[in-house]
């Protein structure tokens, strides 16, 4: 069976997704198609490309040797397609995946996406709130995180500083309220937790912990407690009061994680440039 680019896309999707089902979702095809084409590749190459483990499918030794070659083909195809896009109206084309916290993606949806999609009519955007679980080298993927270190060979580009302040519901005595805070079980020593430990009183209690600033906003707005919020969220909500006035009490640097290879892809260049240009509009009060 002669191999073609679709076979290599399946190889990469299985490696990145770690399972046939996730690969099928990524490529928007039936799982049976993924299974059949993968089996066909293994027969054609006379080798096993993946082995089963407790966490899913992992590349075999042969698969590990072939993946960089498949990625090189993927890059070449991207360059080929983007070269053609120079002659097409609308500029770069294809899908860009953006990973980040839900509140960050909400801000991008509201303040960046409409103009971006109008400016780049051939670029599609997929917003994802979970971090990539496998290397996404050569894939058109960027991530937006605060303290999280880059993984899988990504590099971190600093976008800017996001100011945070402590908020409570108007009309409520802040001293009588318990705390609501961000908390990541996989990385419990993030900046918001350190802030709570430094500023809590002897009688203060941390009653609610969440994984996203949007949930802190909802909890504070309901009167469940006081919490540290990005000022771009807190200052626009007229039901809230900044406990120590509208001034920053904590600053967190937001970074864009991207693999160096994908920075050369024009649709990724467009996303990175737009995020840098629109940072103040999106993340400052």
From TrEMBL:
Pfam families named among the record's database cross-references: HTH_1 (PF00126), LysR_substrate (PF03466)
Any GO molecular function: transcription cis-regulatory region binding
Claim: Repeat is one of the keywords in the record: no
InterPro entries referenced in this protein's UniProt entry, alphabetically: LysR_HTH_N, LysR_subst-bd, WH-like_DNA-bd_sf, WH_DNA-bd_sf
Claim: Nucleotide-binding is one of the keywords in the record: no
Gene3D superfamilies, per the entry: 3.40.190.290, Winged helix-like DNA-binding domain superfamily/Winged helix DNA-binding domain
Domain HTH lysR-type, first and last residues per copy: 3-60
Keywords: DNA-binding, Transcription, Transcription regulation
Transmembrane segments: none
Similarity comment: family membership: Belongs to the LysR transcriptional regulatory family.
Entry protein name: LysR family transcriptional regulator
